[in-house]
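Postdoc handover notes: sequence design on the structure in folder B. Input tokens:
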């Protein structure tokens, strides 16, 4: 298993170095992806599901960041709402993540891969049955 290292952010300051942990990129990408209309949920594992039920939100859930020689690769695993255009929503997710990371970290991303792992069906509640 490769060791995740910190990302050095170049700056013109002589005060010191700025380093960003890959977990920070995961959180930023997770929040940016969940803001897009049509994203029902982000994929997580059993442990993150238990933690969320206890009240702590895991914003990095469903995002995998790999630091490679040619750049940063991000894999996002999402569950989409039924009835939306998946290619259109995936493009919006990629654009939103790229823009958020540029604004917050000034890092260029080599690729953002969107993996649709499920479709969330809307549950229709029958108000007529509840009234009776």
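Designed sequence:
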């Amino acid at each position: 298993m490769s060791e995740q290292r910190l990302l050095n952010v170049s700056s013109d300051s002589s005060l010191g170095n700025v380093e960003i942990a890959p977990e920070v990129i995961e959180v930023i990408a997770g929040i940016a992806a969940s803001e897009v209309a049509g994203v029902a949920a982000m994929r997580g594992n059993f442990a993150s599901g238990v933690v969320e039920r206890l009240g702590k939100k895991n914003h990095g859930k469903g995002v995998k960041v790999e630091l490679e020689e040619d750049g940063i690769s991000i894999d996002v695993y999402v569950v989409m709402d039924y009835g939306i255009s998946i290619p259109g929503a995936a493009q919006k997710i990629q654009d939103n993540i790229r823009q958020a990371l540029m604004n917050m970290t000034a890092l260029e991303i080599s690729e953002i891969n969107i993996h649709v792992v499920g479709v969330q069906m809307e549950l229709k509640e029958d108000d007529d049955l509840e009234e009776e």
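Context for whoever picks this up: The beta strands are 7-9, 18-20, 39-42, 63-68, 71-81, 109-120. Don't rerun without checking with the PI first.
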